[in-house]
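Predict the 3D structure for this chain.
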Amino acid sequence: HLDTASHEAFGRLLGTPVAHPTVPSADGRYSFPINSDYGGRANQWHSDVTFVPAYPAFSILHARTIPPYGGNTLWANTATAYANLPAPLQELAAGLRAVHSNDYDYAALRPDAIPEQLQRFRDVFAKIKFETEHPVVRVHPETGERTLLLGNFVQKISGLTGRDSRDLLDLFQRHIERPENTVRWQWRVGDVALWDNRATQHYGVDDSDAHERKLARVTIDGDVPVGIDGRTSTLLSPDSVPEPEHGIASGASTSGTDAPTVVPAAAG
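Done. Predicted structure below.
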């Protein structure tokens, strides 16, 4: 059994836990609630909290309530995605930067969501609006691998607008999402998944209808990404990352696995 305290203690074995910059913990300092009843169906490919400069290095997800069917999570390897790009696309990606933000069109991504629930979620998630410019290709600080830094928090390619930006984003994202580049986990209550957030994206499949799905996530402090050209990520707004309501700010200061490590409930 993994309660909130032991979940956070487990995180400390990997580094310094960090709170979400806008969403307060429900029952701990660093535990982030993922609740299907609160707009929290993460049915878009993303890496966690990339709208701040030093986004989390690791994420640890604990399954608390699981629907009778559906609700799986997929992970994609962003290092392999870059490595498998044709050389001209690698060269193109290496010279690009992209703006990530937590302020986006939630309704467009979740057209089936109850508007009131979606608005409540947005009011909390985007109560402080962040924009950060990251390199599209970052160099992993431990392995030296080059990884694609994209996902649904990306709003545009820097210097481009409209269709040009969208087409480039879609091009690279398609390579990340290729089925042979992904793994899929069917949750059981008590399962724990751990992944390198700097080298993966993930996707919570929204196919469990109205059934309840509750998980809790603890994230571990990361470093500011560095691109192939040596340039680091830049916070565009606000002027600094404020302290969150619980814990210390993700991305306020700081410093993989190819696929998530999943610990089945029966094993622990």
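The helical segments are 4-12, 78-83, 87-94, 106-109, 115-125, 162-176.
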